[in-house]
Amino acid sequence: MSAVLRILVCYLLAAGFLFLGWTCLKRAKAGLHEAQVGWLFKAWTANPDKAPSGAELSRIERVLRGAVVLDPDNPVLHEQLCQLYLWQLTLARGDPDAEARLSAKATAEARRGVSLRPAWPMAWARLLGLKATFDVPDDEFRLALRRATALGPWDFQTSLAVVAAVLPIWEEVSPEDREVAMNAAIRGFQQKPKDMLPVVQESGRLVEVCAAMAGLTELHQQICSDVIE
Fold first, then answer.
1. CA 7 to CA 9: how far, in whole Å?
2. Does 39 reside within a domain?
3. Using 50, 70 and 90 to split pLDDT, how confident is the model at 51?
4. In 3D, which of 227, 174, 177 has the Cα closest to residue 202?
5. What is the pLDDT at residue 22?
6. Domain end call among 100, 117, 134
7. Cβ burial 160-178 (10 Å sphere, 16+ → b, else e)
8. 68 with 48: CB under 8 angstroms?
9. Any transmembrane segments, and where (predicted)?
10. Which residue among 49, 65, 91, 111 is least packed, with the fewest CB closer than 10 Å?
């Protein structure tokens, strides 16, 4: 190998190592922002009576947007942005333009999360909830419903999210979608009945769910006898 070629190879290797190091540094910085925002979100969730202000949410949005520039394929950052827009939405109630803009941004981030973590059931459940709240039960809604329940049939948080999304819009969904949601509710009752019961009650569909699990005698007796009889 000639001297010139050896020098060229060394330069290329050095450039490759520099690029790799810069990429790792960017991802590490983005990961630090992700962790910091995650801790803050947990604190806000633990104190629902003390909601974040608009200024706080705007500051965190800037942080997350900067982190996404550093690591655009980090699914957690997009999930955090989705949650942020939902908090901003609560402050924008009464402003139709702001509500439409923020709901569209939240849904877009949920779609991005699904594209980056297609095997994670809660990513689909999050998209399902947004479709149920801000859109119509279209093909994307049905796809999210079936992916969420197929990927996480015994994941309680997924079942809870599915039930909270689908049962309140009972009249708008197909009989097949209702059955999928009721099965999720039944699995949730089998795992954590005390946590699932308030969600089903709030949907107004406890009678239908109890009818669906009539064959599970012990569970039906536990959940339904004191409530609807």
1. 5
2. yes
3. confident
4. 227
5. 42
6. 117
7. bbbbbbbbbbeeebeeebb
8. no
9. 6-25
10. 49
